[in-house]
TrEMBL record:
HTH myb-type domain location: 9-61, 62-116
Domain of life: Eukaryota
Organism: Ensete ventricosum (Abyssinian banana)
Name recorded for this polypeptide: Uncharacterized protein
Localization, UniProt: Nucleus
Annotated region (Disordered), positions in chain: 135-173
Length: 244
DNA sequence: AACCGCACCAACCGCTATTAG
DNA sequence: CCTAATAGCGGTTGGTGCGGT
């Protein structure tokens, strides 16, 4: 017995949203909020499934969304965060106010990936392509690092395996931070451990930090975050591994 | 002007995680 | 604890617009 589809296929509209549908959804959510996405289309008078409504709202209709191209700083932050978090687009988006996971994912696949490849950097591993080839050739000699990688991926909260199963965090420790682009990125950005801790926080607290990001503040700008910053700065490599 | 290939992006699909009963 | 319902995430697809030939 298969899983029931998220919505009845019959009588559910698909494809691009019309202005009328957008208005209905906006008016409904602004007036009532989204108590339960499954109920939204019915209550708002839309022939869409709840999933589609949620997507339309979060990716396009949300009033706090920024439209248009990412700034240079935002783009760098995306690369930076991707090096730490991998393809966790929602986590990356949560740290970029007014941007959506879909938008960042699209941007990554269309612009940044190519840009990095042009620079001779593997967009998956964030390492120089030629150097990666050398590393792969001698992979049998780095068994210790391999086991580290396994530990990392095991603690990966059941992320499904994929072609980029490689863990950026593990690789950065392998690489020692000598790769030019990444070292440049890390010099003027948030420390790796801090970023990951913030990520933990944002996923642990029901999106409160996400709320602050929406309000135009980064989580570490929240009141009381300074204590967290100090705590995190005190974490050494051991502490880092303990967290994960 | 017509065709083609490419890039972009909105939306869908299938899966996992979480929550409620 | 188990199961089903729901929410959310990430990968992928398809429509559209644009530039080149």
């Amino acid at each position: 017995m298969g899983r029931r589809p998220c919505c009845d296929k019959l009588g559910v509209k698909k494809g691009p949203w019309s202005a009328e549908e957008d208005n209905k959804l906006i008016n409904f959510i602004l007036a009532n909020g989204h108590c339960c996405w499954r109920a939204v289309p019915k209550l708002a008078g839309l022939l869409r499934c709840g999933k589609s409504c949620r997507l339309r709202w979060t990716n396009y209709l949300r009033p706090d969304l920024k439209r248009g191209l990412l700034s240079e700083a935002e783009e760098r932050l995306v690369i930076d965060l991707h090096a730490r978090l991998g393809n966790r687009w929602s986590k990356i988006a949560a740290l970029l106010p007014g941007r959506t996971d879909n938008e960042i994912k699209n941007l990554w696949n269309t612009h940044i990936k190519k840009k990095l490849l042009k620079m001779g950097i593997d967009p998956v591993t964030h390492r120089p392509l030629h150097r990666q080839a050398i590393t792969e050739a001698s992979s049998s000699t780095v068994t210790a690092d391999k086991s580290d990688e396994q530990v990392q991926s095991q603690g990966n909260e059941g992320q499904k395996p994929s072609s980029d199963n490689w863990s950026p965090a593990a690789a950065s420790s392998i690489d020692g931070g000598t790769e030019p682009l990444m070292s440049c990125l890390w010099e003027d950005s948030t420390p790796a451990v801090l970023l990951d801790e913030l990520w933990q926080l944002s996923s642990d607290d029901d999106g409160d930090n996400y709320g602050s990001v929406i309000a135009g503040r980064m989580p570490w700008e929240e009141e009381g975050s300074s204590e967290l910053l100090l705590d995190i700065q005190d974490l050494g490599e051991f502490g880092w591994r303990e967290i994960h």
